[in-house]
Design brief:
heterotrimer, A mainly alpha, B mainly alpha, C mainly alpha, A: mainly alpha, Four Helix Bundle (Hemerythrin (Met), subunit A), globular, B: mainly alpha, Methane Monooxygenase Hydroxylase, Chain G, domain 1, 4 helices, flat
């Protein structure tokens, strides 16, 4: 019961703030609303019994990526972009695309409502001790992706420094 | 089933109630006599100069960017740390390799001068 | 217990909102934030399926998606900065050098 109520509150928060993200003129406001969305989605992760991913969502997304986005908004002047036209001119193409996408997803959800029943079977207790289980899986089954992730981070580091620094010297 | 998180939920409710109560009461009961001085932005007692929207130095971005990438590294360490004993030397070598790769990037940006604040 | 279809519906609606913002918005930083929104919607679907199938792989996928999103943010925002320096604009439909 508590889980249901919390889920609906969090969903309403996530959807409402997502709409605010795409409608605010000022990118700083969009970023702040996006933080609300990310927190709500993180809360849904908790309802799904994934405390580790909840922590990752807060530490990396809210604490890392959003801070960087706000830094960049401060770096490029906000006032210039705030005064420009905010919505692109191809609204007809955009509207068609969004309607088709929404219709597709809606149809899939409508059709798939029976298909979901098969997944009801195991809201498994196997997912307790979440962080330990993730650690074991991450460092045994997913050994190679972990190392690849480190190389990706290395490339990102070098690339970002090169691109951001080029004009400085 | 939700008992573990129910306490957190109650806590969140209490926090929201308390902050709403404090802000609401001070807005409702408090006396407001605004002057020009009181409405100016607070800047540690110094007179505010210029526009707050001026452009920042690129160094802030570089430090923020490096913060994220090493943040990811730290996040990888949490699940490793809780199963450290079970993984034995295998996990240790794996994490050593992971950190060495990122260390190479760190040395590179250091040599490149991205951490040099004065430039 | 919240049924799986609720999570998937929430994820789908979030994704469509993100896609709408991605298409309609003109400021490149807002477009970037819409991409993050869509990534989050997909993560939510992964998490829901992972929980309901009792399989941890979905959570690991979400973890890697977030890690890749962090790398993407670092590089993508550096691109935005260097774009802004060379073009002095953030509006995506003014970046049309590929047009005939």
């Amino acid at each position: 019961m508590v889980a249901e109520v919390t889920f609906f509150i969090l969903s309403a928060l996530a959807l409402g703030s997502a709409v605010m993200v795409i409608t605010r003129r000022n990118p700083v406001h969009s970023a702040l609303w996006l933080i609300v969305t990310l927190f709500s989605v993180g809360g849904v992760f908790l309802i799904l019994r994934a405390p580790f991913l909840f922590a990752v969502q807060i530490i990396l997304y809210v604490g890392g990526i959003m801070v960087l986005i706000i830094f960049v908004i401060m770096l490029v002047s906000v006032d210039v972009s705030g005064r420009q036209q905010q919505f692109s001119r191809q609204w007809l193409v955009g509207l068609t695309t969004v309607l088709i996408l929404a219709a597709e997803l809606g149809y899939a959800l409508y059709r798939g409502s029976k298909g979901f029943l098969l997944a009801r079977s195991a809201p498994a207790a196997a997912l307790e001790n979440n962080t330990q289980a993730i650690g074991t899986a991450l460092y045994q089954n997913y050994m190679l992706p972990v190392e690849i992730a480190s190389i990706l981070l290395l490339v990102a580091m070098v690339g970002a420094v090169l691109m951001a620094k080029r004009k400085m010297e | 089933m939700e008992s573990g998180y129910l306490t957190i939920l109650i806590y969140i409710g209490a926090v929201v109630f308390l902050s709403a109560a404090i802000l609401g009461m001070s807005a409702w009961v408090g006396v407001k006599r605004p002057t020009r001085e009181k409405l100016s932005p607070y800047e540690c007692g110094i007179q505010p100069v210029g526009d707050a929207r001026e452009r920042f130095s690129i160094s802030f971005y570089l430090v923020g960017m490096l913060f994220i990438l090493f943040d990811v590294e730290a996040v990888f360490l949490y699940p490793w740390a809780v199963v450290y004993k079970e993984l034995k030397w295998f996990g240790f070598t794996e994490m050593l390799l992971y950190i060495l790769i990122l260390l190479a990037g760190y040395v590179y940006i250091w040599k490149k001068g991205a951490l040099d604040w004065s430039r | 217990m919240v049924p799986l279809s609720h999570y998937i519906a929430l994820s789908a609606i979030l994704f469509v909102i993100g896609a709408a913002g991605f298409i309609f918005r003109r400021n490149i930083i807002t477009v970037f934030m819409c991409i993050e929104l869509m990534l989050n919607a997909v993560n939510l679907a992964f998490m829901a399926f992972s929980r309901f199938r009792g399989n941890l792989d979905g959570q690991l996928f979400v973890f890697f998606v977030i890690v890749v999103a962090a790398a993407e943010a670092a590089v993508g925002l550096a691109l935005i900065i260097s774009l802004y320096r060379s073009r002095d604009t953030l509006a995506i439909d003014e970046l049309d050098s590929m047009k005939l």
